[in-house]
Write a structure and sequence with these properties.
By secondary structure, the chain is mainly α. It has five helices and no strands. It has helices spanning about 5-50, 60-65, 70-75, 80-90, 105-115. Helix 1 (about 5-50) packs across helix 5 (about 105-115) and helix 4 crosses helix 5 (about 105-115). It starts with 6 loop residues before the first helix and ends with a helix.
Amino acid sequence: MISNSRFPFFALALVICAAIVVVASGKAENNSSARSAAQLYGKYCASCHGRDGQAKTSKAKFNHARDLTDPKWQEDVSDERIFNSIMNGRNVRGNMPAFSKKLSEQDAESLVTYVRAMRK
């Protein structure tokens, strides 16, 4: 049993520990999101768009994959369109599959940021 004189100290220590755990888990989540965008791209996107985003793979030619590094395309396309292409796929020039059943919205958002970083 905790005495009344020590209770405020104990409660304060408990709150501080809980805050540290929450902050630490948030930082770990942010760091893993940054790493996971590259991992997700490697797993789901690189076979068509290439590791560097330039779509110079044989599969890219067959599927008419977009060169993600193209400055004109980067300028013209919105984040929302990239997000929607990732989640819903595209069948305009080629055949990009939908990834909504494999990726969360947060995953897709991190991929949008990753694709934006590929601009030449």
